[in-house]
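Work Package 3 (structural annotation) set out to generate three-dimensional models for the target panel prioritized at the project kickoff. During this period the team completed the workflow that converts sequence records into C-alpha coordinates, so that structures can be stored uniformly alongside our sequence database. As a representative example, we reproduce one entry of 568 residues exactly as it appears in the project archive.
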Amino acid sequence: MSEEKKILHSTDALKANLSSRDRGEKLLAIRAMSILRKPEYADSLVDVLSSPDAEVIDSTISALGQIQNPNSLKYLIPFLFDDNTERSETAWNAISKFNLKPVIPSILKAATSDKPPATRKMLLSLLAKVNDMRVASAMNEVLGQTRDIPLLCEALEYFIRFPAVDKASVFKVLSASEQWEVAMYADLALSRTGDDSARPRLKKLAKSPAYQMRLALAKGMNITAMVQDREIYEILIRDTHPPVRIAAFQGFSVFSASERQPLILELLEKEKDEKIRHRLYEIASIEKSPIFFQEFIKLLSSQSLKLKNLAQKALILMGKSIVSQIVAAFSSMPLEMKERVLLILGEIGCEKGLHLLISGLSSKERWLRINSIDGIARIKEKKFAVRFAEMASTESDPWILATLMSALVKIGSEKELEIAKNFLGHPDGRVRANAVAAVSKIDSPEVPKLLEPLVNDGNDRVRVNASVALWKIGEVKVLDRIVHTLKDSSKWRRSSAAYALGEIGDREPVPALLEMLVDKEDVVYRNTIEALGKIKDPRSVIPLLIEREKKRVPQDVIDSVLKSFNDN
Protein backbone atom coordinates (compact mmCIF):
# COMPACT_ATOMS: atom_id res chain seq x y z
CA MET A 1 0.00 0.00 0.00
CA SER A 2 1.39 3.42 -0.96
CA GLU A 3 2.13 6.09 1.66
CA GLU A 4 -0.71 8.25 0.28
CA LYS A 5 -3.23 5.40 0.56
CA LYS A 6 -2.09 4.61 4.10
CA ILE A 7 -2.67 8.20 5.17
CA LEU A 8 -6.04 8.26 3.41
CA HIS A 9 -6.99 5.04 5.16
CA SER A 10 -6.02 6.64 8.47
CA THR A 11 -8.22 9.66 7.72
CA ASP A 12 -11.18 7.44 6.84
CA ALA A 13 -10.68 5.52 10.09
CA LEU A 14 -10.76 8.76 12.09
CA LYS A 15 -13.99 9.85 10.43
CA ALA A 16 -15.50 6.43 11.12
CA ASN A 17 -14.55 6.72 14.80
CA LEU A 18 -16.12 10.17 14.89
CA SER A 19 -19.46 8.56 14.03
CA SER A 20 -18.99 5.75 16.53
CA ARG A 21 -21.57 5.11 19.22
CA ASP A 22 -18.68 4.45 21.58
CA ARG A 23 -18.08 7.71 23.46
CA GLY A 24 -14.42 6.95 24.05
CA GLU A 25 -13.75 6.29 20.37
CA LYS A 26 -15.52 9.50 19.41
CA LEU A 27 -13.47 11.60 21.84
CA LEU A 28 -10.23 10.01 20.68
CA ALA A 29 -11.11 10.79 17.06
CA ILE A 30 -11.86 14.42 17.93
CA ARG A 31 -8.56 14.82 19.78
CA ALA A 32 -6.65 13.10 16.98
CA MET A 33 -8.16 15.48 14.42
CA SER A 34 -7.22 18.37 16.70
CA ILE A 35 -3.60 17.20 16.61
CA LEU A 36 -3.39 16.45 12.89
CA ARG A 37 -5.17 19.71 11.93
CA LYS A 38 -6.28 18.74 8.43
CA PRO A 39 -8.70 21.41 7.06
CA GLU A 40 -11.01 18.73 5.65
CA TYR A 41 -11.73 17.44 9.16
CA ALA A 42 -13.67 20.61 10.01
CA ASP A 43 -16.82 19.66 8.07
CA SER A 44 -17.10 16.37 9.94
CA LEU A 45 -16.46 18.02 13.30
CA VAL A 46 -19.10 20.72 12.80
CA ASP A 47 -21.75 17.99 12.69
CA VAL A 48 -20.65 16.79 16.13
CA LEU A 49 -21.42 20.19 17.74
CA SER A 50 -25.05 19.08 18.06
CA SER A 51 -24.04 16.24 20.38
CA PRO A 52 -25.83 16.09 23.78
CA ASP A 53 -22.50 15.15 25.39
CA ALA A 54 -20.84 18.21 27.01
CA GLU A 55 -17.29 16.85 26.79
CA VAL A 56 -17.75 15.96 23.13
CA ILE A 57 -18.93 19.52 22.37
CA ASP A 58 -16.09 21.17 24.30
CA SER A 59 -13.47 18.92 22.69
CA THR A 60 -14.92 19.64 19.24
CA ILE A 61 -14.84 23.41 19.82
CA SER A 62 -11.17 23.18 20.81
CA ALA A 63 -10.40 20.95 17.82
CA LEU A 64 -12.00 23.40 15.38
CA GLY A 65 -9.86 26.13 16.93
CA GLN A 66 -6.74 24.09 16.24
CA ILE A 67 -7.75 23.30 12.64
CA GLN A 68 -8.77 26.91 11.89
CA ASN A 69 -10.88 26.22 8.82
CA PRO A 70 -12.62 29.59 8.13
CA ASN A 71 -15.82 27.80 7.11
CA SER A 72 -16.33 26.50 10.65
CA LEU A 73 -16.01 29.81 12.48
CA LYS A 74 -19.67 30.80 12.09
CA TYR A 75 -20.64 27.65 13.99
CA LEU A 76 -18.43 28.60 16.94
CA ILE A 77 -19.64 32.18 17.49
CA PRO A 78 -22.93 31.14 19.19
CA PHE A 79 -20.94 29.29 21.86
CA LEU A 80 -19.40 32.59 22.98
CA PHE A 81 -22.76 33.36 24.61
CA ASP A 82 -23.23 29.98 26.24
CA ASP A 83 -24.53 30.03 29.81
CA ASN A 84 -21.66 27.72 30.68
CA THR A 85 -18.80 30.19 31.26
CA GLU A 86 -16.14 27.51 30.75
CA ARG A 87 -17.59 26.64 27.35
CA SER A 88 -17.80 30.30 26.46
CA GLU A 89 -14.11 30.67 27.31
CA THR A 90 -13.27 27.55 25.29
CA ALA A 91 -15.06 29.05 22.29
CA TRP A 92 -13.23 32.36 22.73
CA ASN A 93 -9.86 30.59 22.86
CA ALA A 94 -10.77 28.59 19.75
CA ILE A 95 -11.98 31.56 17.72
CA SER A 96 -9.00 33.72 18.68
CA LYS A 97 -6.71 31.26 16.84
CA PHE A 98 -8.38 31.95 13.48
CA ASN A 99 -7.40 34.42 10.79
CA LEU A 100 -10.33 36.70 11.55
CA LYS A 101 -10.19 39.11 8.62
CA PRO A 102 -12.39 36.94 6.34
CA VAL A 103 -15.12 36.73 9.00
CA ILE A 104 -15.19 40.33 10.26
CA PRO A 105 -18.81 40.87 9.11
CA SER A 106 -20.02 37.82 11.06
CA ILE A 107 -18.36 38.98 14.27
CA LEU A 108 -19.49 42.60 13.94
CA LYS A 109 -23.03 41.44 13.22
CA ALA A 110 -22.97 39.57 16.52
CA ALA A 111 -21.52 42.61 18.36
CA THR A 112 -24.31 45.11 17.75
CA SER A 113 -25.36 47.66 20.37
CA ASP A 114 -28.39 45.62 21.50
CA LYS A 115 -26.02 43.02 22.98
CA PRO A 116 -24.88 43.24 26.63
CA PRO A 117 -21.63 45.22 27.08
CA ALA A 118 -19.72 42.13 28.26
CA THR A 119 -20.79 40.25 25.12
CA ARG A 120 -19.79 43.12 22.85
CA LYS A 121 -16.44 43.46 24.58
CA MET A 122 -15.74 39.77 24.13
CA LEU A 123 -16.55 39.88 20.43
CA LEU A 124 -14.71 43.11 19.74
CA SER A 125 -11.66 41.89 21.62
CA LEU A 126 -11.36 39.16 18.99
CA LEU A 127 -10.78 41.91 16.43
CA ALA A 128 -8.47 43.99 18.61
CA LYS A 129 -5.42 43.32 16.39
CA VAL A 130 -7.18 43.53 13.03
CA ASN A 131 -6.41 46.79 11.25
CA ASP A 132 -9.57 47.25 9.21
CA MET A 133 -11.89 50.20 8.51
CA ARG A 134 -14.97 48.15 9.43
CA VAL A 135 -13.51 47.30 12.83
CA ALA A 136 -12.41 50.92 13.39
CA SER A 137 -15.95 52.09 12.58
CA ALA A 138 -17.42 49.64 15.10
CA MET A 139 -14.94 50.74 17.77
CA ASN A 140 -15.78 54.39 17.06
CA GLU A 141 -19.48 53.65 17.56
CA VAL A 142 -18.69 52.19 20.98
CA LEU A 143 -16.99 55.43 22.04
CA GLY A 144 -20.22 57.36 21.53
CA GLN A 145 -22.68 54.71 22.72
CA THR A 146 -21.59 53.33 26.05
CA ARG A 147 -20.43 54.25 29.51
CA ASP A 148 -19.41 50.69 30.30
CA ILE A 149 -15.78 50.96 31.44
CA PRO A 150 -14.40 47.63 30.11
CA LEU A 151 -16.11 48.12 26.75
CA LEU A 152 -14.87 51.70 26.45
CA CYS A 153 -11.35 50.64 27.31
CA GLU A 154 -11.52 47.89 24.67
CA ALA A 155 -12.41 50.45 22.00
CA LEU A 156 -9.76 52.93 23.18
CA GLU A 157 -7.14 50.20 23.23
CA TYR A 158 -7.86 49.60 19.54
CA PHE A 159 -7.02 53.23 18.77
CA ILE A 160 -3.84 53.00 20.82
CA ARG A 161 -2.79 50.15 18.56
CA PHE A 162 -4.07 51.82 15.39
CA PRO A 163 -3.86 55.63 15.92
CA ALA A 164 -6.72 57.74 14.55
CA VAL A 165 -5.94 61.46 14.24
CA ASP A 166 -9.53 62.26 13.21
CA LYS A 167 -10.78 61.06 16.60
CA ALA A 168 -8.45 63.22 18.72
CA SER A 169 -11.31 65.42 19.90
CA VAL A 170 -13.22 62.35 21.15
CA PHE A 171 -10.14 61.15 23.01
CA LYS A 172 -9.75 64.57 24.66
CA VAL A 173 -13.31 64.44 25.96
CA LEU A 174 -12.85 60.92 27.33
CA SER A 175 -9.51 61.84 28.92
CA ALA A 176 -11.48 63.96 31.38
CA SER A 177 -13.43 60.90 32.60
CA GLU A 178 -13.70 60.35 36.34
CA GLN A 179 -12.80 56.68 35.71
CA TRP A 180 -9.01 56.51 35.69
CA GLU A 181 -8.89 53.52 33.29
CA VAL A 182 -10.94 55.36 30.68
CA ALA A 183 -8.96 58.59 31.15
CA MET A 184 -5.63 56.73 30.90
CA TYR A 185 -6.57 54.82 27.73
CA ALA A 186 -7.96 58.01 26.19
CA ASP A 187 -4.73 59.87 26.97
CA LEU A 188 -2.70 57.02 25.45
CA ALA A 189 -4.87 57.05 22.33
CA LEU A 190 -4.52 60.83 22.11
CA SER A 191 -0.74 60.67 22.53
CA ARG A 192 -0.53 58.21 19.61
CA THR A 193 -2.09 60.82 17.29
CA GLY A 194 0.89 63.13 17.80
CA ASP A 195 -0.85 65.28 20.41
CA ASP A 196 1.56 65.64 23.34
CA SER A 197 -0.91 67.40 25.64
CA ALA A 198 -1.68 64.04 27.30
CA ARG A 199 1.90 63.22 28.26
CA PRO A 200 2.09 65.28 31.47
CA ARG A 201 -0.98 63.41 32.75
CA LEU A 202 0.54 60.04 31.78
CA LYS A 203 3.80 61.00 33.48
CA LYS A 204 1.87 61.88 36.63
CA LEU A 205 0.16 58.49 36.48
CA ALA A 206 3.59 56.81 36.29
CA LYS A 207 4.25 58.21 39.78
CA SER A 208 0.90 57.19 41.22
CA PRO A 209 1.03 55.49 44.65
CA ALA A 210 -1.28 52.77 43.28
CA TYR A 211 0.87 50.12 41.56
CA GLN A 212 -2.21 48.83 39.65
CA MET A 213 -2.33 52.17 37.82
CA ARG A 214 1.39 52.10 37.06
CA LEU A 215 1.15 48.52 35.80
CA ALA A 216 -1.85 49.36 33.61
CA LEU A 217 0.06 52.33 32.18
CA ALA A 218 3.09 50.19 31.30
CA LYS A 219 0.90 47.59 29.59
CA GLY A 220 -1.05 50.31 27.80
CA MET A 221 2.09 51.95 26.42
CA ASN A 222 3.37 48.54 25.32
CA ILE A 223 0.43 48.20 22.91
CA THR A 224 2.23 50.64 20.62
CA ALA A 225 5.44 51.92 22.20
CA MET A 226 6.68 55.29 20.94
CA VAL A 227 10.00 57.11 21.17
CA GLN A 228 8.12 59.92 22.93
CA ASP A 229 7.37 57.47 25.80
CA ARG A 230 11.02 57.22 26.83
CA GLU A 231 10.77 59.50 29.84
CA ILE A 232 7.79 57.58 31.24
CA TYR A 233 9.45 54.23 30.55
CA GLU A 234 12.55 55.40 32.42
CA ILE A 235 10.37 55.97 35.47
CA LEU A 236 8.58 52.62 35.19
CA ILE A 237 11.64 50.43 34.58
CA ARG A 238 12.89 51.60 37.99
CA ASP A 239 9.53 51.06 39.68
CA THR A 240 9.51 49.52 43.17
CA HIS A 241 6.96 46.89 42.13
CA PRO A 242 8.53 43.96 40.20
CA PRO A 243 5.60 43.29 37.80
CA VAL A 244 5.68 46.95 36.76
CA ARG A 245 9.41 46.76 36.00
CA ILE A 246 9.00 43.59 33.96
CA ALA A 247 6.12 45.09 31.96
CA ALA A 248 8.11 48.28 31.34
CA PHE A 249 11.07 46.32 29.93
CA GLN A 250 9.09 45.98 26.69
CA GLY A 251 9.72 49.68 26.25
CA PHE A 252 13.48 49.20 25.74
CA SER A 253 12.79 49.21 22.01
CA VAL A 254 12.04 52.96 22.06
CA PHE A 255 15.61 53.76 23.17
CA SER A 256 18.54 53.90 20.77
CA ALA A 257 21.24 51.28 21.25
CA SER A 258 23.60 53.87 22.75
CA GLU A 259 20.92 54.76 25.33
CA ARG A 260 19.52 51.29 25.88
CA GLN A 261 22.64 49.24 26.48
CA PRO A 262 24.13 51.34 29.34
CA LEU A 263 20.65 51.49 30.84
CA ILE A 264 20.29 47.68 30.83
CA LEU A 265 23.77 47.38 32.33
CA GLU A 266 22.88 49.87 35.06
CA LEU A 267 19.70 47.94 35.89
CA LEU A 268 21.60 44.65 36.01
CA GLU A 269 24.06 46.07 38.51
CA LYS A 270 21.28 47.28 40.81
CA GLU A 271 18.61 44.58 40.43
CA LYS A 272 18.22 42.17 43.37
CA ASP A 273 15.18 40.20 42.21
CA GLU A 274 16.51 37.00 40.57
CA LYS A 275 13.53 36.59 38.25
CA ILE A 276 13.96 40.13 36.95
CA ARG A 277 17.73 39.73 36.65
CA HIS A 278 17.16 36.68 34.48
CA ARG A 279 14.82 38.68 32.25
CA LEU A 280 17.40 41.45 31.97
CA TYR A 281 20.05 38.89 30.98
CA GLU A 282 17.73 37.61 28.25
CA ILE A 283 17.24 41.18 26.98
CA ALA A 284 20.99 41.88 27.16
CA SER A 285 21.81 38.71 25.21
CA ILE A 286 19.77 39.94 22.25
CA GLU A 287 21.82 43.14 22.13
CA LYS A 288 24.97 41.26 20.97
CA SER A 289 27.02 44.08 22.49
CA PRO A 290 30.50 43.64 24.05
CA ILE A 291 29.40 46.10 26.75
CA PHE A 292 27.89 43.06 28.48
CA PHE A 293 31.00 40.89 28.18
CA GLN A 294 31.95 41.01 31.86
CA GLU A 295 28.40 40.25 32.99
CA PHE A 296 28.13 37.16 30.82
CA ILE A 297 31.67 35.87 31.30
CA LYS A 298 31.02 35.91 35.08
CA LEU A 299 27.75 34.12 34.48
CA LEU A 300 29.62 31.13 33.05
CA SER A 301 30.50 30.30 36.67
CA SER A 302 26.88 30.48 37.83
CA GLN A 303 25.36 27.61 39.80
CA SER A 304 22.41 27.71 37.40
CA LEU A 305 22.83 25.62 34.25
CA LYS A 306 20.11 27.70 32.58
CA LEU A 307 22.09 30.90 33.19
CA LYS A 308 25.34 29.28 32.06
CA ASN A 309 23.73 28.26 28.78
CA LEU A 310 22.22 31.72 28.34
CA ALA A 311 25.64 33.30 28.93
CA GLN A 312 27.28 30.96 26.44
CA LYS A 313 24.73 31.86 23.74
CA ALA A 314 25.07 35.56 24.52
CA LEU A 315 28.86 35.47 24.22
CA ILE A 316 28.63 33.61 20.92
CA LEU A 317 26.26 36.28 19.61
CA MET A 318 28.80 38.98 20.51
CA GLY A 319 31.13 37.33 18.01
CA LYS A 320 34.60 38.49 17.07
CA SER A 321 34.31 41.71 19.08
CA ILE A 322 35.02 39.83 22.33
CA VAL A 323 37.71 37.37 21.20
CA SER A 324 40.59 39.62 22.31
CA GLN A 325 39.06 39.92 25.79
CA ILE A 326 38.62 36.15 26.02
CA VAL A 327 42.20 35.48 24.95
CA ALA A 328 43.54 38.05 27.46
CA ALA A 329 41.54 36.61 30.35
CA PHE A 330 41.82 32.90 29.48
CA SER A 331 44.86 31.99 31.60
CA SER A 332 43.23 33.29 34.80
CA MET A 333 39.89 31.56 34.23
CA PRO A 334 38.81 28.56 36.33
CA LEU A 335 38.95 25.22 34.50
CA GLU A 336 35.19 24.83 33.95
CA MET A 337 34.98 28.31 32.43
CA LYS A 338 37.91 27.54 30.12
CA GLU A 339 36.09 24.45 28.88
CA ARG A 340 33.02 26.47 27.91
CA VAL A 341 35.07 29.31 26.45
CA LEU A 342 36.79 26.94 24.02
CA LEU A 343 33.39 25.90 22.66
CA ILE A 344 32.38 29.57 22.42
CA LEU A 345 35.51 30.33 20.39
CA GLY A 346 34.67 27.43 18.10
CA GLU A 347 31.20 28.83 17.46
CA ILE A 348 32.54 32.34 16.84
CA GLY A 349 35.18 31.11 14.41
CA CYS A 350 38.04 33.63 14.39
CA GLU A 351 41.76 33.37 13.64
CA LYS A 352 42.73 34.90 17.00
CA GLY A 353 40.51 32.41 18.82
CA LEU A 354 41.83 29.55 16.71
CA HIS A 355 45.33 30.04 18.16
CA LEU A 356 43.93 29.43 21.64
CA LEU A 357 42.08 26.32 20.44
CA ILE A 358 45.26 24.97 18.84
CA SER A 359 47.18 25.43 22.08
CA GLY A 360 44.42 23.52 23.86
CA LEU A 361 45.15 20.43 21.76
CA SER A 362 48.34 19.96 23.78
CA SER A 363 46.77 20.56 27.20
CA LYS A 364 47.28 18.08 30.02
CA GLU A 365 43.62 18.52 30.97
CA ARG A 366 41.43 15.98 29.21
CA TRP A 367 38.39 18.23 28.79
CA LEU A 368 40.42 21.16 27.52
CA ARG A 369 41.77 18.89 24.81
CA ILE A 370 38.31 17.51 24.06
CA ASN A 371 36.71 20.94 23.83
CA SER A 372 39.60 22.26 21.73
CA ILE A 373 39.01 19.44 19.23
CA ASP A 374 35.27 20.12 19.30
CA GLY A 375 35.81 23.88 18.93
CA ILE A 376 38.07 23.49 15.89
CA ALA A 377 35.57 21.08 14.34
CA ARG A 378 32.84 23.71 14.76
CA ILE A 379 34.96 26.21 12.84
CA LYS A 380 35.14 23.54 10.11
CA GLU A 381 38.81 24.17 9.37
CA LYS A 382 39.46 21.31 6.91
CA LYS A 383 43.22 21.59 7.30
CA PHE A 384 42.96 20.17 10.84
CA ALA A 385 41.53 16.87 9.62
CA VAL A 386 45.05 15.59 8.93
CA ARG A 387 46.18 16.51 12.43
CA PHE A 388 43.10 14.87 13.99
CA ALA A 389 43.78 11.68 12.03
CA GLU A 390 47.38 11.70 13.24
CA MET A 391 46.26 12.30 16.83
CA ALA A 392 43.83 9.39 16.58
CA SER A 393 46.61 7.03 15.50
CA THR A 394 48.50 7.58 18.77
CA GLU A 395 45.72 8.47 21.24
CA SER A 396 44.71 6.03 23.99
CA ASP A 397 42.10 8.05 25.91
CA PRO A 398 38.66 6.77 24.75
CA TRP A 399 36.92 10.11 25.41
CA ILE A 400 39.41 11.97 23.25
CA LEU A 401 39.35 9.26 20.59
CA ALA A 402 35.55 9.43 20.41
CA THR A 403 35.75 13.22 20.03
CA LEU A 404 38.35 12.89 17.27
CA MET A 405 36.06 10.49 15.37
CA SER A 406 33.19 12.96 15.73
CA ALA A 407 35.41 15.84 14.56
CA LEU A 408 36.51 13.87 11.49
CA VAL A 409 32.85 13.38 10.55
CA LYS A 410 32.45 17.17 10.52
CA ILE A 411 35.62 18.19 8.69
CA GLY A 412 37.41 15.16 7.29
CA SER A 413 37.72 14.05 3.68
CA GLU A 414 37.70 10.37 2.72
CA LYS A 415 41.46 10.24 3.12
CA GLU A 416 41.30 11.20 6.80
CA LEU A 417 38.10 9.25 7.46
CA GLU A 418 39.88 6.03 6.45
CA ILE A 419 41.49 5.90 9.90
CA ALA A 420 38.07 5.36 11.46
CA LYS A 421 38.03 1.81 10.07
CA ASN A 422 40.74 0.95 12.60
CA PHE A 423 38.42 1.81 15.49
CA LEU A 424 35.31 -0.17 14.54
CA GLY A 425 36.54 -2.87 16.91
CA HIS A 426 37.71 -0.55 19.70
CA PRO A 427 36.79 -1.79 23.21
CA ASP A 428 35.03 1.50 24.08
CA GLY A 429 31.46 1.80 22.75
CA ARG A 430 31.64 5.57 22.32
CA VAL A 431 34.66 5.24 20.06
CA ARG A 432 33.03 2.46 18.00
CA ALA A 433 29.78 4.45 17.66
CA ASN A 434 31.57 7.56 16.40
CA ALA A 435 33.81 5.47 14.17
CA VAL A 436 30.67 4.02 12.56
CA ALA A 437 29.45 7.55 11.80
CA ALA A 438 32.84 8.38 10.26
CA VAL A 439 33.08 5.20 8.16
CA SER A 440 29.54 5.70 6.83
CA LYS A 441 30.80 8.91 5.14
CA ILE A 442 33.29 6.93 3.04
CA ASP A 443 32.15 6.21 -0.51
CA SER A 444 33.35 2.65 -0.86
CA PRO A 445 31.64 -0.70 -1.63
CA GLU A 446 33.34 -2.21 1.42
CA VAL A 447 31.48 0.05 3.87
CA PRO A 448 28.33 -2.13 4.13
CA LYS A 449 30.48 -5.19 4.90
CA LEU A 450 32.32 -3.25 7.59
CA LEU A 451 29.13 -2.00 9.23
CA GLU A 452 26.82 -5.02 8.97
CA PRO A 453 28.41 -6.96 11.88
CA LEU A 454 27.95 -3.91 14.10
CA VAL A 455 24.15 -4.07 13.79
CA ASN A 456 24.47 -6.78 16.47
CA ASP A 457 27.08 -4.97 18.57
CA GLY A 458 26.76 -5.13 22.33
CA ASN A 459 26.53 -1.34 22.63
CA ASP A 460 23.23 0.48 22.02
CA ARG A 461 24.72 3.49 20.24
CA VAL A 462 26.84 1.32 17.98
CA ARG A 463 23.84 -0.77 16.94
CA VAL A 464 21.75 2.32 16.25
CA ASN A 465 24.48 4.15 14.34
CA ALA A 466 25.28 1.10 12.24
CA SER A 467 21.62 0.42 11.42
CA VAL A 468 20.88 4.02 10.49
CA ALA A 469 24.10 4.34 8.49
CA LEU A 470 23.31 1.19 6.48
CA TRP A 471 19.81 2.46 5.76
CA LYS A 472 21.13 5.82 4.59
CA ILE A 473 23.60 4.25 2.17
CA GLY A 474 20.83 2.21 0.57
CA GLU A 475 20.90 -1.09 2.44
CA VAL A 476 17.10 -1.28 2.74
CA LYS A 477 17.12 -4.88 3.97
CA VAL A 478 18.43 -3.62 7.30
CA LEU A 479 14.92 -2.34 8.05
CA ASP A 480 13.52 -5.88 8.27
CA ARG A 481 16.40 -6.86 10.53
CA ILE A 482 15.70 -3.94 12.88
CA VAL A 483 11.97 -4.75 12.99
CA HIS A 484 12.85 -8.35 13.82
CA THR A 485 15.05 -7.08 16.68
CA LEU A 486 11.96 -5.48 18.26
CA LYS A 487 11.12 -9.02 19.42
CA ASP A 488 14.58 -9.72 20.88
CA SER A 489 14.74 -11.06 24.44
CA SER A 490 17.11 -8.22 25.46
CA LYS A 491 15.35 -5.01 26.44
CA TRP A 492 18.44 -3.06 25.35
CA ARG A 493 18.31 -4.52 21.85
CA ARG A 494 14.59 -3.85 21.62
CA SER A 495 15.02 -0.27 22.84
CA SER A 496 17.88 0.48 20.42
CA ALA A 497 15.86 -1.04 17.56
CA ALA A 498 12.94 1.27 18.36
CA TYR A 499 15.29 4.24 18.56
CA ALA A 500 16.90 3.33 15.22
CA LEU A 501 13.50 3.12 13.52
CA GLY A 502 12.73 6.61 14.79
CA GLU A 503 16.01 7.92 13.39
CA ILE A 504 15.35 6.26 10.01
CA GLY A 505 11.85 7.74 9.90
CA ASP A 506 10.29 5.26 7.45
CA ARG A 507 6.56 4.62 7.94
CA GLU A 508 6.66 0.94 7.00
CA PRO A 509 7.56 -0.28 10.53
CA VAL A 510 4.83 1.78 12.26
CA PRO A 511 2.50 -1.22 12.85
CA ALA A 512 5.39 -3.13 14.44
CA LEU A 513 6.22 -0.14 16.64
CA LEU A 514 2.59 0.21 17.72
CA GLU A 515 2.72 -3.40 18.92
CA MET A 516 5.67 -2.41 21.13
CA LEU A 517 3.46 -0.10 23.21
CA VAL A 518 2.62 -3.12 25.37
CA ASP A 519 6.30 -3.75 26.18
CA LYS A 520 6.74 -3.88 29.95
CA GLU A 521 10.24 -2.39 29.91
CA ASP A 522 10.17 1.39 30.37
CA VAL A 523 13.27 2.02 28.24
CA VAL A 524 11.68 0.16 25.29
CA TYR A 525 8.32 1.87 25.84
CA ARG A 526 9.79 5.37 25.94
CA ASN A 527 11.97 4.82 22.87
CA THR A 528 8.91 3.50 21.03
CA ILE A 529 6.85 6.55 21.98
CA GLU A 530 9.61 8.89 20.80
CA ALA A 531 10.19 6.92 17.60
CA LEU A 532 6.50 7.22 16.68
CA GLY A 533 6.78 10.97 17.26
CA LYS A 534 9.73 11.20 14.87
CA ILE A 535 8.00 9.18 12.15
CA LYS A 536 4.73 11.17 12.48
CA ASP A 537 2.46 8.63 10.86
CA PRO A 538 -1.21 9.64 11.44
CA ARG A 539 -2.01 6.04 12.39
CA SER A 540 -0.02 6.58 15.58
CA VAL A 541 -2.05 9.45 16.98
CA ILE A 542 -4.96 7.58 18.58
CA PRO A 543 -2.68 4.88 20.09
CA LEU A 544 -0.49 7.67 21.52
CA LEU A 545 -3.54 9.42 22.97
CA ILE A 546 -4.52 6.15 24.64
CA GLU A 547 -1.00 5.81 26.06
CA ARG A 548 -1.18 9.37 27.34
CA GLU A 549 -3.99 8.36 29.67
CA LYS A 550 -1.95 5.46 31.06
CA LYS A 551 0.71 7.90 32.35
CA ARG A 552 3.60 5.45 32.01
CA VAL A 553 5.88 8.36 31.13
CA PRO A 554 5.66 11.99 32.26
CA GLN A 555 2.77 13.71 30.50
CA ASP A 556 5.01 16.36 28.96
CA VAL A 557 6.90 13.62 27.09
CA ILE A 558 3.84 12.37 25.20
CA ASP A 559 2.49 15.93 24.84
CA SER A 560 5.75 16.89 23.11
CA VAL A 561 5.53 13.84 20.85
CA LEU A 562 1.91 14.60 19.91
CA LYS A 563 2.78 18.23 19.26
CA SER A 564 5.40 17.10 16.73
CA PHE A 565 2.62 15.89 14.42
CA ASN A 566 1.73 19.54 13.79
CA ASP A 567 5.05 19.99 12.00
CA ASN A 568 3.87 17.96 8.99
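Residues 1-9 have pLDDT under 50 and may be disordered.
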